[in-house]
Design brief:
The chain has 258 residues and is an alpha/beta fold. It has helices at 23-34, 46-58, 73-87, 110-142, 163-183, 209-221, 227-239; strands at 14-18, 38-43, 62-67, 92-95, 145-150, 188-195, 248-251.
Length: 258
């Protein structure tokens, strides 16, 4: 692989991406690899990860797939140990695994509440806990490391029936601001990326018909973001000078008002 740092400014960096089997995670893994990073892709679907690794390598990049459910703390720690042993540790973590399951609160869809909290919050914390020591170590050695958390515009704005999902994303954004105070002095940048509507698999998981109708109506009235739009911003965050930390990045479709 070429080490032309002008076109591949992330050569020498190791980027771990959770939720990498589709959507923003998949696109971000490809983008970071194209910029020169060695990418480690984590998700449950091993066959999707294998296809992603093959595509990255065909394009001249370097990738390692580890099939893992981020809600399984022991499995996440084992993945982190493997990254340390084989690649010397991560200096970028994109926490992207998540699920969106809106429903009216009175329906008491407790299984879906738990699924969102387990993945969007507990899974996020499992990855942060496992990989933060590597980020801190890398920052001490290289002068910079990045913790990037995928949040949502739902962390800020109000969407009926999205209360639980929005609550999990508010957690992600507020947690990110707090972690900056702990990790910033150690040269680990922390960013929360808050996209508006992105065309991903998330919408296909929605079971509530009213929410499905609302999403479908929005698709007809505006052009949604693509996963690559968000991936481009993840690349920008990673390429910034070490002194610069984009604390919170809101990426909206031009046609989405709020």
């Amino acid at each position: 692989m070429s080490t032309n740092t002008s076109s591949q400014p992330l050569v020498g960096r190791v980027a771990v991406v959770t939720g990498a089997s589709s959507g923003i995670g998949e696109a971000s893994a490809e983008r970071l690899a194209a910029l020169g990073a060695r990418v480690v892709v984590l998700a449950r679907r091993a066959e999707r990860l294998a296809e992603l690794v093959e595509r990255i390598e065909k394009n001249g990049g370097s990738a390692l797939a580890i099939a893992v459910d981020v809600t399984d703390l022991a499995a996440v720690q084992a993945a982190a140990d493997r990254v340390e042993a084989e690649l010397g540790g991560a200096d970028l973590l994109l926490n992207n695994a998540g699920v969106m399951l809106p429903s009216p609160i009175e329906e008491r869809a407790t299984g879906q509440w738990k699924q969102q909290i387990d993945l969007n919050i507990t899974g996020l914390m499992n990855a942060i806990g496992a990989f933060t020591p590597q980020l801190v170590k890398a920052a001490a050695e290289r002068g910079v490391a990045d913790l990037v958390n995928t949040s949502s515009i739902a962390a800020q704005n109000i969407f009926p029936t999205f209360a639980v999902y929005s609550g999990t994303k508010a957690y992600v954004s507020h947690l990110s601001r707090h972690l900056r105070t702990e990790l910033g002095p150690k040269k680990v940048r922390v960013s929360a990326v808050e996209p508006g509507i992105v065309a991903t698999e998330l919408q296909s998981h929605v079971t509530d018909q009213d929410a499905r109708d609302w999403l479908e109506g929005s698709r007809e009235t505006m052009e949604w973001l693509t996963p690559d739009d968000v991936a481009q911003m993840v690349g920008v965050i990673a390429m910034l000078p070490p002194r610069v930390n984009l604390q919170q990045v809101t990426i909206m479709p031009t046609g989405q008002a709020s």
